[in-house]
Specification:
There is one protein chain. This protein has 456 residues and is an alpha/beta fold. Strand 17 and strand 18 form a beta hairpin.
């Protein structure tokens, strides 16, 4: 235990979306238990029912991490409800629905099976703010507080597993789809990424009347996101054409992300999808706040399209919780990221791939046109995003020559964004310009620069 204490001391735990890393090396059973205890100590200060909900995706390491979290929470007196594999947005919904003090999702989202993560929700189903995450980190690094919080005898918490809560979430999803509409007559190909949505996704679409062809719905603990799902759409595109489907839907490992493929087997850009949905909601009188929220990564074409509709695009930092922060601040009920996190705040507290898919389907039905005709309402500026594998995350302001590089891009009217991944050892470089050749040349130059600066 002494070595664990030393290892955890002052460790930064939270990234852009919870605690995430390779299971068994960074995210060990010991760390999972410690983080659970630290979070539990924080939630105890605001406890109402002394219950915390736990769900997970389909990774084998979820068993190890779940048991460690249960041990940590029960050790400080919390009762735990375990509901097994469920989408991340389902955890947010069911946590509030079951009046729990908090919810925990064990998932590394779109990452490969070797990784895993821990995401927290408060009793209202909201992701934690950076300030709260910092408080939990401080608690985890305070051994005296951790020791004092542990209880004995009758005060030790209980854990129980409930297997039938999926029905609550299915009802919630179906309620997000307009009652006057039906999916009868629509053929949909759904790729569940061998992840947390492999049961609920097909069930909802079929109950609403669709003819559903399901791909990658046989998780074995190791095949989550493997050549499938939102990040790998080749199979989905091919099957949409093969079955002459009206739409293809891809989820990621925890089903909080959506990628759409039109009837021609072509992936719809995430920014174009946001624009189409935002405009549709506005036409239906359902858009609040006279605008939508996306991130600094979003294409300038989306912003220009919003302006043409007398709407505003509000930009946030990268990460769906930052999108949600701006939505709450501006009184807006719709936003998302070009990567596929779409937040329909009237129906979900976080990105929900299935809620978003149902709104896309409602749009297509109401427009009485094909997906390819309604989901690309504007043209995109040439944009390129490159992920560079790096050895060390050196502070950007300490990289010699970077300011001059960025100044040159500004002079060339090339929009740029350089940031480290919050979940992986990668640097993300985004460039956008009206001239594609100029942008490609600039990207080659930036890649060479960062390879030398961060991998030497």
């Amino acid at each position: 235990m002494q070595n664990l204490k030393k290892m955890e001391n002052n460790m930064k735990l939270f990234g852009t979306d919870g605690v995430r890393g390779e299971a068994g090396s960074f995210l060990t059973a010991g760390l999972a238990m410690r983080v659970a205890m630290g979070a539990g100590i924080y939630f105890k200060q605001h406890a109402i029912n002394n219950k915390i909900l736990i769900g997970k995706d389909t990774r084998t390491s979820g068993y190890m991490i779940e048991n460690a979290i249960v041990a940590g929470l029960t050790a400080i007196g919390y009762d735990v409800i375990q509901i097994g594999p469920m989408p991340t947005p389902a955890i947010a919904f069911i946590t509030e629905n079951m009046r729990c003090d908090a919810g925990i999702m064990i998932s590394a989202s779109h990452n490969s099976f070797e990784d895993n993560g821990i995401k927290f929700f408060d009793g209202h189903g909201n992701k934690l703010s950076g300030e709260v995450e910092k408080i939990i980190e401080d608690i985890c690094n305070n051994q005296e507080m951790m020791d004092d919080a542990q209880v004995t005898a009758k005060n030790i918490g209980k854990a129980k597993r409930i297997d039938d809560v999926i029905g609550r979430y299915i009802v919630q999803l179906k309620n997000s789809f307009p009652r006057e509409l039906s999916l009868h007559g629509m053929r949909i190909v759904l790729d569940t990424a061998n992840g947390a949505g492999y049961k609920v996704g097909p069930t909802v679409l079929e109950e609403l009347g669709a003819d559903v062809i399901v791909l990658h719905d046989h998780p074995n603990g190791h095949n989550i996101n493997e050549g499938c799902g939102a990040l790998h759409t080749k199979d989905l595109c091919e099957h949409v054409l093969m079955f002459r489907a009206d739409l293809g839907i891809a989820l990621d490992g925890d089903a909080d992300r959506l990628v759409v493929v039109d009837e021609k087997g072509v992936v719809v850009d995430g920014d174009q999808l946001l624009g189409a949905l935002g405009s549709y909601l506005n036409d239906q009188g359902l858009l609040k706040g006279k605008g939508i929220v996306s991130t600094v990564m979003s294409n300038q074409g989306l912003e220009d399209y919003m302006i043409s509709k007398n709407l505003k695009l509000f930009r946030s930092d990268v990460g769906d919780k930052h999108v949600l922060d701006v939505m709450n601040k501006e009184g807006i009920n719709f936003g998302g990221e070009q990567s596929g996190h779409v937040i329909m705040h009237d129906f979900a507290k976080t990105g929900d791939g299935l809620v978003s898919a149902l709104q896309v389907l409602a749009l297509i039905i109401n427009k009485k046109k094909k997906a390819s005709e309604v989901l690309r309402p504007f043209s995109l500026y040439p944009q390129k995003l490159t992920n560079i594998n790096i050895k060390v995350k050196k502070p950007l302001d300490e990289i010699d020559g970077l300011d001059a590089k960025l100044k040159t891009l500004d002079e060339q009217h090339i929009r740029h964004l350089v940031r480290y991944s919050g979940t992986e050892n990668k640097l993300r470089v985004l460039l956008e310009a009206k001239d594609a050749k100029q942008m490609d040349s600039a990207m080659d130059d930036m890649i060479e620069f960062f390879q030398k600066a961060l991998n030497a």
